[in-house]
UniProtKB/TrEMBL annotation:
Recorded superkingdom: Eukaryota
PANTHER family on file: HET DOMAIN-CONTAINING PROTEIN
InterPro entries in alphabetical order: HET
Domain Heterokaryon incompatibility: 22-106
Listed Pfam families: HET
Protein name, UniProt field: Heterokaryon incompatibility protein-domain-containing protein
Length: 535
């Protein structure tokens, strides 16, 4: 490990147990960063080394002789040294006495919003630089301290972080603020929990909104967070690098939350692996749970080989149940809709994740109807999204709480499941099927009513049938759009109120993803839904 002597401004080499206490710099790169080859020919007063000089001065004030700066302490011209350094980076930051986070875009007169929106919080590499060190001090562009986060166990080295200069604004302890900015728990920031005990999905969600200059680095920057070592293959592309990372995680961990992605933007392919940390956005509350005896799973040439409970519903959709749930809803189990890779009757044990279908959380009572099977979950990410296999999501009402209605026999089948249990998922369905669903609700203060929802590839509409005449219901449910429905309903549906069709509707509406259906309802689901009569 190369370290810069802050007194002599010379690089020195150390090995293993001979490595002295050191401070480490965390920063965002600019175009004129100094390389290892250039450093020997520059003096300390070179403008390009201003950031490094500030780091050295701060270290000496903290009674630390050595500093590590990633720009020139690594010979990036050597692929082997670069690979070793990136695989060791998390440990190097974790072993540092203190980490200086230098925020060049936060100036002395900046307010809290500027700090929160700093580029430092958007970069991929700075995630591990925030997590690994026990103590991180944050400085603005003038090297005036903003505050710090520290872990008690890291202070046992005898180093007590000093607040050298005060600035008006936030308190010295930034842990709560950092948590609100990054969505990382205070416990994780302060090392109060073991990083290995945090689910894969939660850790991936921390990186969801971050970026790197080279696409492969989005995966490589996460190696230490998952305790993974793997060769770097620049040129393989970001998607391949991220899939390779997930394969390595699977080989060393039993954690089904690695499959819980697609909540924020929806899946874009039929592979079981995500292609970017962005796919894990919205998955921070997904945790592991046990639904029976553990069975190993591994990556093969056919996909991920796994033994898992599966429930087949109408249309040939197979719901696989994984050992994952939401942190606050342990009675739910995560399920992913799957289809045979070669179509019905072909390769029925090789399944693909349905494009545009996100994971859903269902009551664990569904497990009683499932059959444990040996499956291969395809990892091929090249399957295109088909419009006729879309999954529609109806956000029924923000106030809806206990959603226990699961009409699996509808066309398309529907499942209540969401962070707030206010979401009804429709689809996917096979070509040629009737794209019609019926949802029944009742309220203590109003009569039972039914939602009749119809879909096609380009338009969607939502209508409501009142089960009996009641002025209360009429007053509560107002038409929100006068657009034409465009379908012949048939049957003897009466007292139908048009709740809206495609289009922008303002107000207290909830939106269908990826199409647009709106519903101004906040009632309770019925336990005994009626069966629809098809045209």
């Amino acid at each position: 490990m190369r370290l810069l002597n802050a007194n002599t401004f010379q690089l020195e080499q150390f090995y293993d147990n001979d490595i002295p206490p050191y401070a480490i710099l965390s920063h965002t790169w600019t175009k004129d960063e100094v390389t290892f080859q250039e450093f020997a020919n520059l003096s300390w007063d070179d403008p390009r080394l201003e950031k490094t000089v500030g780091c050295c001065k701060q270290a000496l004030q903290d009674d630390i002789t050595y500093v590590w700066v990633d720009t020139f302490c690594i010979d990036k011209a050597s692929s082997s040294e670069l690979s070793e350094a990136i695989n060791s980076m998390y440990k190097w930051y974790g072993d540092s006495t203190v980490c200086y986070a230098y925020l060049s875009d936060v100036h002395p007169i900046s307010d809290d919003d500027v700090f929160s929106n700093s580029r430092w919080f958007k970069r991929g590499w700075t995630l591990q630089e925030l997590l690994a060190p026990g103590c991180v001090k944050f400085f603005d562009s003038a090297w005036i301290i903003i505050g710090q986060k520290s872990a008690e166990k890291r202070l046992s080295k005898g180093f007590e972080p000093l607040v050298l200069r005060k600035r008006p604004g936030p308190d010295d302890d930034l842990s709560e603020k950092l948590s609100s900015i990054t969505n990382i728990s205070v416990a994780a920031l302060r090392h109060e929990v073991n990083m290995d005990s945090i689910s894969v999905a939660e850790k991936m969600s921390w990186a969801a909104e971050r970026e790197t200059t080279r696409s492969e680095d989005m995966a490589y920057s996460l190696l230490g967070i998952f305790s993974i070592n793997m060769p770097l293959l620049y040129g393989e592309g970001g998607k391949r690098a991220f899939i390779r990372l997930q394969e390595e995680i699977i080989s060393q961990n039993y954690d089904h939350t690695i499959f819980s992605w697609g909540f924020a933007r929806g899946p874009t392919h039929g592979g079981i692996f995500a292609t970017s940390p962005l796919d894990f956005a919205g998955g921070g509350s997904i945790v592991c749970r046990s639904i029976g005896r553990k069975s190993h799973y591994t990556v093969t040439n056919l996909g991920v080989q796994i033994q898992i409970p599966v429930l087949t519903v109408r249309n040939g959709v197979q719901y696989a149940f994984f050992n994952a749930t939401r942190r606050s809803r342990a009675e739910l189990v995560m399920s992913i809709p799957l289809y045979p890779a070669g179509g019905t009757g072909e390769d029925e044990d090789i399944l693909v994740r349905d494009p545009c279908s996100m994971p859903v959380f269902v009551p664990d009572s569904w497990l009683g109807e499932a059959t444990t099977r040996q499956l291969y979950l395809s990892k091929n990410p090249s399957i295109e999204v088909a419009r006729n296999r879309r999954q529609y999501t109806l956000f029924v009402a923000k106030e809806l709480t206990e959603a226990k209605y699961h009409p699996r026999e509808l066309h398309p089948h529907a499942i209540f499941s969401s962070v707030d249990d206010s979401t009804l998922y429709f689809g996917p369905w096979a070509p040629g099927e009737k794209k019609l669903a019926l949802v029944t609700y009742e309220s203590p203060d109003s009569p039972t009513f039914h939602l009749k929802i119809m879909f096609d590839d380009d338009r969607s509409s939502c209508l409501l049938q009142r089960a009996e005449q009641d002025e209360t219901l009429i007053n509560e449910l107002k038409p929100v759009d006068s657009g034409e429905v465009g379908w012949t309903l048939g049957n003897d549906w009466k007292e139908v109120i048009n709740l809206g069709t495609l289009g922008d509707v303002s107000g207290k509406m909830e939106k269908l993803w990826p199409e647009s259906i709106y519903c101004l309802l906040s009632l309770t689901p019925s336990e005994d839904p009626i069966s629809p009569e098809w045209e």
